[in-house]
Amino acid sequence: MDKYYRLNKPECREFIAGLASKYKVVAPVKKGEKNYVFSEISSPDEIASGYIPTIIPPKKYFFPKRETLIEYDIRAQRQKAVMEYEKLIIFGVRTCDLAGIQCLNMVFSERPRDVNYLIRKNKLIIIGMECWDYCDEHAICGLMDNHQPKGGYDLFFSDMGDFHLIHVNTLVGEEIINSVGVFSPADEKDLEKLEKFRERKRKAFKTSMGVSHQQLKDIFADAEDAKVWEDLGERCLSCGNCTTVCPTCYCFDVIDEINLDFKTGERFRIWDSCQNEDFAKVAGGESFREERKGRQMHRYMRKFKYPLKKYSRYFCTGCGRCSRACMADIRIKETIQEVIKEKGLSNEKAGIS
Amino acid sequence: MKRLELVDSPYLVREAKVCEARQMTKSERYLKIVLKDAHDLDHEPGQFVMVSIAGVGEAPISICSSPTKEGYFELVVRNVGKVTSAIHKLEAGDTVGIRGPFGRGFPVRILEGNDLLFVAGGLGIVPLRSLVDFVIDNRRDFGRVNILLGCRTPQDILFRDEVALWERRIDVNFSCTVDRADPEWKGHVGVITSLIPGVDLDPDRTFAVVVGPPIMYKFVIKELLKKGIPEKQIIVSLERHMKCGVGKCGHCQIADYYCCQDGPVFSYDEIKENIEAL
Amino acid sequence: MKKVKVAFFDFSCCEGCQLQVANIGDLLLDILEKIELVEFREVMSERGGDYDVAVVEGSITTEHDVKRIKGIREKAKVLIAYGSCACTGGVNGMKNNFDLEDVKKYVYRDKSDWFNTVPTMAVDQVVKVDYYVNGCPVYPPEFVRVLKCALRGMPYKVPDYAVCVECKFNENECMYDKGVTCLGPITRAGCNSWCTNNGNICYGCRGMVSNPNKNGQKEVLKKYNIPLDWIVNKFNMYNKAKESQQV
């Protein structure tokens, strides 16, 4: 039986303050006029209300933008594989970002496993937060079927108006509940209310894209030659914003840095982007994705086609960050529309015989 | 922040020693390497290793020796960048870091019992040599063996002594062509594709194994298909930018393949639909 | 290990980049273990003879400069162009917007005949440059990185992607979101988006990425209602001397 707790709104502040006194807590904080970032908080007042997806998703805690892999000492011909971690509570993770973390989990646990990622991931505690409606016009979480919680959290908060309903998904979550004594067990009525809210939510997240979650993979199956890539290639500035902010982009570069003693140093990885000029360039100088249209096509295929074979899921969470961050107004919704227009939803693809 | 030392990190390099090093041409250096932690690298022909120079970086390098040569492995490195130029400075006795072997090599168990047509362009002879030597060391297990080699000039021919031996063997048909001849050159002149029509082969029984610069594949494959060799029996090895070697960093991706794990060896039918591959 | 002799030279510049050496902090002591400073006007007076590495700040603006930099190049095993003025001509390039005689008269008035001047040039428009440390001023961590490469005889590649990449890594609010025009999308990274991290815009002091999407950029300007000449002028503030190679 699923376990639910109830937290009255006034006590929510007490809960956050209690957490922050025991753990390092990060949560969405307002940045500038219309942006939000996950950042350390010490008081509940710092948490933004009604936040839309943060500039960078919580992937930065799982897969830091710069991470040491190896430390070496040339003199002693010694090297050490290392990792750094920190126990952290990530509060307020939306379902789109929970899905993003699940995608990264798959990539980094695929053999050969990435030990750095896997150890760190288990030190992080995730508290999710339900959305009741689209955050803005860029989100396509409904289409990507990531608007509903599907695991991936320790605790999950649903705002029920005057109280929060909290789903406990793990023992770690239960321990947190017990360590801050402000919760009361949820009763039947609370759960009925949740069901009602969820019913309303299903309507709110209807998609108007003219394509279903299932059909998406069919329209992208042979979209390599679509003209839309040329259009995107003409507009794209290769600023890399779309990949940096994507919750499922994980490409990296590996770089050696030697210290000034010229004996010791480290090998680290740093986020990289398939949109960058040199990304697919071999040492001899040949680039296998020289044109912007090819790089944009690659980005979309990495969300809607390539991962399906290996991971049986889309690598687009529907968070809409790439659209929000694009200088050139390349919008994921429009791109999908264009692909549909070109490739068409044939009867077969639409499931009509 | 807490810090952990990892014993099972895929980024940990194995210590190895260079036991022989010599310059083959102006830009290619030969290295013979032994591992310190194991007698043998235990690789398949066609696989590669990440060669690590601490303080400089890592580069993916094809293994050019056959696994039948036990206790060591060989690399030929072209000086094209920061890491390879540091590798070029290695001398016998130096220590070097190795990760791997990585990737899917040539499908030797499928090739067994069939006729083979090797097509090597330029530096392509390097990875291909691991298979040629494997086949020669197990010569009885294979059918007819044809080797076609194409180079820019006679000076660019690598492993000249060994190539001369292949030429003399009665159980190997060897032809070589150069783009530009010098006065001493007595062999073919022209691109490698010009050698293919003249090869006597039974297309159904023949596997063609092609390795060369990216530009070469399209033309060679066209000729091979003309010969009637089935798509499944055309094997290529592709070069891509690689950073991690373990299928994560994304640099070597070719559509849904990670070249470092799913390749670098592919059959033509696996990648022909893939507009990025060739 | 014998210390490498390093000499700093300045041409037309404000010497602010040399001042950045003092901002390197603790690492400076480690650097001084490896190098022997034989010439550095900002902090020392004695003038040494030989040097292995020449760190050149400033742009070339007179005939005398041309001769002098050629002399330095002959003596130096390695030449590092240091700062925007040396790498792209920097703000001194603005001179190239005007007639040289007018410029001379404006600056030196009735004594203008005493001086000669040539169009502003980046160092690599006169002699071969081995390493570039872009920026106005240079970003000290990048200088340390370049110096390490130079001392080890290894290449250093200036990043060839836009400042936006680093700016987004740092989760800054986009200047365009704030209604402010910024040159980040066309400017080479490597500064860890130093300016935008501190609330300023990017002025393009590191020069342009090698393959900017010119038409795409124009569309973006249209969207924000920014006239093309306005952005070209802005970019030329640091890059006029290399204009012909870019726009």
Please tag this protein with its features.
heterotrimer; A: 353 residues; alpha+beta; 2 domains; eight-stranded mixed β-sheet; 12 strands; C: 247 residues; alpha/beta; Rossmann fold; five-stranded parallel β-sheet; 5 strands
Number of domains of chain B: 2
CATH class of the largest domain in chain B: Alpha Beta
Shape, per Cα inertia axes of chain A:
globular
Q: Give start-end ranges of low-pLDDT stretches of chain A.
A: none
How much of the sequence lies in strands of chain A comes to 15-25%
Structural class of chain A: alpha+beta
CATH topology of the largest domain in chain B: Rossmann fold
Number of DSSP strands of chain A?
A: 12
Give the tally of structural domains of chain A: 2
Distance between the termini of chain A: 42 Å
Which strands sit side by side, in order, in the main sheet of chain A?
3-2-6-7-8-9-1-10
Overall mean pLDDT of chain A stands at 92
Q: Got a strand count of chain B?
A: 16
SSE run of chain A: EHEEHEEEHHEEEHEHHHHEEHHHHH
- Quaternary structure type: heterotrimer
Largest sheet of chain B: 7 strands, mixed
Instruction: Examine the secondary-structure arrangement and name the CATH architecture of the largest domain in chain B.
Output: 3-Layer(aba) Sandwich
Could you explain how this protein is built, in words?
The complex is a heterotrimer of chains A (353), B (278) and C (247). By secondary structure, chain A is of the alpha+beta class. Chain A has helices at residues 9-22, 59-62, 95-109, 115-121, 171-179, 188-204, 213-221, 228-235, 241-244, 292-304, 306-311, 321-325, 332-343, 347-350; strands spanning 3-8, 25-31, 35-41, 66-73, 78-85, 88-93, 124-129, 155-159, 163-168, 184-185, 252-258, 264-271. Chain B folds into two domains: 14-102, Beta Barrel (Elongation Factor Tu (Ef-tu), domain 3), CATH 2.40.30.10; 108-237, Nucleotide-binding domain of ferredoxin-NADP reductase (FNR) module (Rossmann fold), CATH 3.40.50. Chain B has helices spanning 82-87, 108-111, 125-137, 160-168, 214-226, 259-262, 268-271, and strands at 2-6, 14-23, 28-35, 48-53, 57-62, 73-78, 95-102, 115-121, 145-151, 173-178, 188-189, 206-211, 234-237, 253-254, 257-258, 265-267. Chain B has a seven-stranded mixed sheet with strand order 11-10-9-8-12-13-16, sandwiched between helices. Chain B has a six-stranded antiparallel sheet with strand order 5-4-7-2-3-6. Chain B is globular. Chain C is of the alpha/beta class. Chain C has two domains: 4-152, Rossmann fold; 163-240, no CATH class. Chain C contains ten helices and five strands, in the order βααββαβααβααααα. Chain C has helices spanning 16-22, 27-34, 63-75, 84-88, 100-108, 140-152, 163-169, 194-197, 214-223, 228-239; strands at 4-10, 35-39, 53-57, 78-82, 131-133. Chain C has a five-stranded parallel sheet. In chain C, helix 3 (63-75) links the parallel strand 3 (53-57) and strand 4 (78-82). Chain C is globular, with a radius of gyration of 19 Å. The termini of chain C are far apart. The chains are: A alpha+beta (353), B alpha/beta (278), C alpha/beta (247). Chains A and B meet through strand 4, strand 5, helix 4, strand 11 and strand 12 of A and strand 1, strand 5 and strand 14 of B. Strand 5 (78-85) of chain A pairs antiparallel with strand 1 (2-6) of chain B.
